[in-house]
Design brief:
mainly alpha, Fumarase C, Chain B, domain 1, two-stranded parallel ribbon, about 5% strand, binds arginine
Length: about 475
Amino acid sequence: MAMWAGRFAKKLDGRVNDYNESLSFDCRLYKWDITGSAAHAMMLAKQGIIKPEEAENILRGLKGILEDIENGSLRFDDGSEDIHMYVEGILTTRIGEDGKRLHTARSRNDQVALDTRLYLREQAGEIYNLVRDLINVITDKAEEHRETVMAGYTHLQRAQPVTYAHWLMAYASMFCRDLSRLKETYARIDVMPLGSGALAATTYPIEREYVANLLGFKEITLNSVDAVSDRDYAIELVFDISLIMMHLSRFAEEIILWSSSEYGFIELDDAYSTGSSIMPQKKNPDVAELARGKAGRAFGNLITLLTVMKGLPLAYNKDMQEDKEAVFDSIDNVKLTLEVFCEMYKSCTIRADKLRKSASLGFINATDCADYLVKKGMAFRDAYKTVGSIVAFCVKEQKPIEELPLETLKEYSDKFESDIYEALDLINCVGRRLVPGGPSKESVEIQIAAVKAAASKPSSSFVSEISEELAGVL
Ligand code: ARG
């Protein structure tokens, strides 16, 4: 019988029950539901709303439920509508009368907001640490490849010389922004909604700050109607996850291309590639492809949440129960993707020789050649045109510019001297790009140091924990 059955003359239709229930997926919130309930019971006793011995009984009961769920002796199979009713129901079965006092001055509407925020707080921290791990793997590789010259691309065409370290630090920069976004989102998750009741708070003399302190929240929500109808914090986290997945997807795309025989710049470790069931020669980059594919799924979840919330009248509506599966799916997938991707990338081999060879074939020092003429006094537009004709000739001859003899170069401009060869050397071309943010070894070292500093602290430096007082009773 449902807890709210008192008002109804008929039993709920069996299929409506299946339609309505959320226990099958919100059961993952059990730890936070129990922790939140314990804090609520402690507050009720402190304020004299329930008796100290009633609270003790409740706390003992909650602790037992938590232990039994964790040791597998309690399963989520009693047909309860959701995790909140499940915990309260088991509690009442176990401790009797006092169990019925727990829900005083509380509604499932503020309870679900509390549980979700507690869960997302923890998850945001875990995702943060996984992004950090990936940044560390990227910066380690970058350090190894500070002198690995490669062609930087635009339009997937070889463009100008950079190093692989510089290229990698572009990805590190994206993931650093993800870290700061997660931190900012965390601050908006870390707000305590309990005490908002169903929507109009309560007449009981509760103390919301005490509950917030017990649960380690920085602040309490401002408005009870908003507190029970807001899901911005979940949407924001799912958006942060979408951007992480988008970044992973771009990185993945490059790994897929580069590991093909056409490029051959990356060799994936056998443990992170798969074979084909029919083509014996195949070694497929499935991990990278799945990361790229799962980005689509993450964006879908974001759209799900935005669409569920759009047009909802205040305050709580049951539509909001639909937030959970999308949020959980995004969290599970980004964590799994980050973990596997990190190991896949750590174990791959970068073929510096192939990157270098490809760099020498793409006329990527053409800009440097024009800059050389500019330094000798020619206007840039004229230099650009001159080098364009040289490149056209080189394409015909199938030769890089630096292989043309000085006499040939002089036919295009008398400003060419023997120092042109030094100017065209790819290592020198990269080395001269000394400006902050550029690919020279010095500039890249500054980038690596900045990224390392940004990613130096684990999430424990900003993720709040529940108080010792509360931890002591659970
Ligand atoms: N299972 C519900 C959810 O996830 C909990 C809140 C239900 N509140 C209500 N009044 N039906 O949203």
